[in-house]
Amino acid sequence: MLKQLVRSATFVCALLITGVPTAALAQTERGLTEQQVVQAFLQQHRVDQWLAEQRQAIQAQRDGAALLANPELELSYEPMSYADGSEENELALWLTQSFEAWGARGYRQQAADLQAQVATTQLHITLRDQLAEVRTKFYHLVMLTQQYQQQQRFTQQLTELVAQSQQQLELEEQSRLDHFRLQQTLSSAQLKTAELAREAVALSHELEALTGLNIEQQLAAPLLPQELSPETLNQLRAPTHNLELAMLQQLRERLAAEQQAAEARVFPEVTVGLGMRRIEDAQGQHSEAAASLGVELPLFQRGQYEAARLVPLQTALSIEFERLQCAQQQQFASLKKRLRATLQSLQQSQLHNTEQMLATARQAYWLGEISVTELIDIQRTQQTLSADLLNHQFNARVDWIHLQQLSYQPEELKR
Questions:
Q1: pTM of the model
Q2: Which domains does the chain have, with CATH numbers?
């Protein structure tokens, strides 16, 4: 349908399925679906590869946190001369390794694991929001397409009406003023049709950039979610946990692990060394193995200030968790209330037999029962009601997408 839209508005643009494997995006006879657009977005942005690369980077960070400190190799040579003229030379080779024997290393590794979970959750939040944006743009295009179709039918009806009026004018059975009013209304309708076409083409270009598709056929998706009903809304409950809340919880647990790592520094760090000593003196050379044990004296730096810094940060995150949870519950309730009101409004405002009513109005005009002003007013009113109905359906779809964002991850993230 968009191909017809572009042609009729004298726009030349490319509109569906280049740059994406046909097998992966085989379109149904009904037209382009939301799922196909989402899959195209995932392929266009190589989301699977992006997630895999990010996970490898996260895993490398976790592996690094588990490593011990590097061992130290020390070579020393000490010549000694005594008062009696004798000499003694000592050559020593030491290999020392420090161990955090009191759990600090384990706590740091735990903190790194939790930071990896935070990074993974952030990736999912980013992708979830991007998918919501793509879905919203898709349904916006669906709405513009349907509004264009309605406006096109309205313009066609006015074109036929003006043609009939011209014939009546030539037969001197129509006033020039009425004919002029109808021509003005037709010109306004044609401008509105072109405006809708431009908006649809501009939005289709945005979807092309996001998905790699070239959209030219009918969009097979209802504006109003088919699964949405007052009963469905009544069964929905505000989420007690979602991605944002999970990330705050992970951040708080990471800070707790870092605090434990800092507090573990109050215990002395142990350094173990193994070596070989060779001594040269007047009696000759001899070698022997040696061992050393070093113990840090935690008199000053005991992690006390780091631990003191992390405690209030955990409290702040707990407050933020409660605040965000309350805000999301309020937002969820607000969305449900607005959706319920929209559904009720749509149920009360369904348009029936619009075409028949407009045909009756045109017939009444030719019979002289109503004026041209009344005819134009009836047509414009019906066109405005139809456009408003589509706007309400689109708003319901957007609110439904936001509810899904609050409630759970999109299905694409659970694959």
A1: 0.75
A2: 2-414 (1.20.1600.10)
